[in-house]
C-alpha cells in the first residue's frame, strides 16, 4: 500500500511538471512570435506578417524558439534577424509561407 501511495504522489508530481513545461513552452512561443512578427514586419512591410510568423515558429526548434524569445527581453540584434531569416529559408518554411500566401490571395 505504501508503494501505491508513493506511485500516486510521483505521478501527480510529474503531471505538475508537464503542466509547468507546457506553460513555459507557450510563453516562450508567444514571446518568440512577437519578435519574429516584428522582424518580418520590418523586413517586409507590405506582407501580412502573422501567417509568415506562424510558419517560421512552426519550423524553429525548441532551442531556436528560446533564443528568439530571449530577444524580446534583450532586444533584437542582427544575429536575431539572421536566425529568423535562416529559419524562414528552410524548405518546409518556404512551402508553408507560399501556401499561406496563396490562401490569403484566395487561391
What are the main properties of this structure?
mainly alpha, 107 residues, signal, Succinate dehydrogenase, disordered N terminus
Counting structural domains, the number is 1
Global mean pLDDT: 82
Shape: globular
Output the helix-strand order: HHHHH
What would you call the structural class?
A: mainly alpha
The major sheet is characterized as: none
Strand content: under 5%
Stretches where pLDDT is under 50 for at least 5 consecutive residues are: 1-12
Work out the number of β strands: 0
Separation of termini? 62 Å
The number of helices is 5
State the helicity in percent bands: over 70%
Global Rg = 19 Å
Overview of the structural elements:
With 107 residues, the protein is mainly alpha-helical. It has one domain (2-104). It contains 5 helices and no strands. It has helices at 2-43, 49-59, 62-74, 78-88, 91-104. The longest helix has 42 residues, at 2-43. Residues 1-12 have low confidence and may be disordered.
